[in-house]
Amino acid sequence: MGQCLSFAKPIVEEVLSELVNETGEPKTSEPVATDASSSTSGPIHSSLPSCAEQHRVRNVYDGDTLTLIDERRVRLLGIDTPEIKEQQPFAQEAKAFTKDRCDKRDIWISFEPDGEREDHYGRLLCFVWVPANNGDGYLCINEGIVEAGFARAYQPGKTKKLHNWDKLIELQSRARKENRGVWSEFEDFEVVKTANGSAYHKRSCEHLAKVRHLTELMASEASEMGLHPCRTCFG
What we know:
The chain has 235 residues and is α+β, with helices and mostly antiparallel strands. Helices cover 16% and strands 22% of the residues.
């Protein structure tokens, strides 16, 4: 069921206060659809995207999935957290990260410009925002949980590159180098990738049975390239 919840402290502490402007409304950036003003090195942004919608959360299912009070489900874009059902390590820590900041609280959601708004399960594909702990800006949960080491950057192979994809990879690299969360027991090893795939594999992966041209590389290198572990051969 993963490591104990006290093993790794989240990078951003539990939300304590809300940031509002003089009119009582949250700050928003002009007029870019999703690209809120932010620090280039962290997940805290000075303002919300101008298109952000405010909602209240009814329940947090796991680190990357939650339900709004109107019963719509939200799948956080650009990340993949350990699975609770499969009892993967750090699944509970990932859930706690998102639950502590979102459950029974008001959040803001925004969509990727020109991107799909729902997946094939009917879940909203969103970036989720909450007030920063010190009241100065907004935390993008998608980015914060990657920086904390409880999620990997993830993007299906056929989808358009997310506007903040390079930043997610940068935050993931930092978490790996500092041995946070899922990276705390990481030991590098050799993997393979196909020419155009978005995942890296074990050489024995069943998906590679008919693939002739494979590239060998280290798992750390594959992560730096934005590749994610194959869900079949790595579980």
